[in-house]
Write a structure and sequence with these properties.
The chain is of the alpha+beta class and about 200 residues long. The protein has two domains: about 10-105, MutS, DNA mismatch repair protein, domain I, CATH 3.40.1170; about 105-203, 3-Layer(aba) Sandwich (Trna Endonuclease, Chain: A, domain 1), CATH 3.40.1350.10. It has five helices and twelve strands. It has helices at about 45-55, 70-80, 95-105, 110-120, 165-175; strands at about 10-15, 15-20, 30-35, 40-45, 60, 65-70, 85, 125-130, 135-140, 150-160, 180-185, 195-200. It has a five-stranded mixed sheet with strand order 5-6-4-3-7, covered by helices on one side. A five-stranded mixed sheet has the order 8-9-10-11-12. The protein has a two-stranded antiparallel sheet with strand order 1-2. The protein is globular, with a radius of gyration of 22 Å. The N and C termini lie far apart (about 85 Å).
């Protein structure tokens, strides 16, 4: 005679009621709370927030136990349902509202975000590179900031955007002066990204 399989359940007793939860039901992941500023997002003081930095190098510690995220990092985490973004008055900011505000705060935000997200999904650590005069700096897979220098500086460009030889040369000079490779991330109309690595050679 075939045996019937029986699902075990965990029974939790509360005042006036009994709730049975299947043992194989996935636990809800903790969502970190973060407050939206003008051009950055600041998380709550929690272990979950600090894990963003310690495990994935997302954001930077602010010295008070919280993590300061760029708008790109905050949206990336929000899309993965790991971050809940609120206003300073604790009102939730829907993702589409956040994107609209980010586009107002930063030029070409969406194009840059698509490249940022694509690189993160490929396993690379991506950080801003404003001090180098670039959009992002990218580390080799398995390398974290502080362990070694970034290998590339990355410029996201939409395929409809024109790029003069002067602009192209300037980007190449930045890469050469910082001893990094120049990487161009070209975003098409469908949001797909194609990468071109450019090298500097003297005739």
């Amino acid at each position: 005679m075939a045996k019937k399989s029986v699902k075990k359940a965990t029974v939790t007793t509360t005042t006036g009621s009994v709730t049975a939860t299947p043992a194989n039901e996935p636990k809800r992941k903790d969502v970190v709370l973060a407050v939206l500023g003008h051009d950055q997002v600041l998380t709550e003081n929690s272990d979950g927030a600090r894990d963003f930095y310690s495990q994935s190098r997302l954001g930077e510690p602010d010295g008070s136990g919280r993590i300061q995220l760029s708008l790109y990092e905050a949206l990336y985490l929000a899309e993965k349902e790991k971050l809940k973004i609120v206003t300073p008055r604790n009102k939730e900011v829907p993702i589409q509202t956040f994107i609209r505000k980010a586009k107002q705060a930063q030029k070409s935000f969406w194009t840059k975000y698509l490249v940022f997200r694509d690189m993160r999904n490929r396993g690379y650590i991506v950080k801003t590179a404003l001090k180098f005069g670039a959009d992002f700096r990218v580390y080799e897979r398995g390398v974290k900031p502080g362990e070694d220098h970034a290998k590339w500086i990355l410029y996201p460009i939409h395929e409809s955007q024109s790029l003069t030889w002067h602009d192209f040369s300037a980007k190449n000079r930045v890469a050469h002066s910082t001893k990094k490779h120049l990487l161009l991330g070209i975003v098409d109309e469908e949001g797909d990204v194609t990468y071109y690595q450019v090298s500097w050679e003297r005739p």
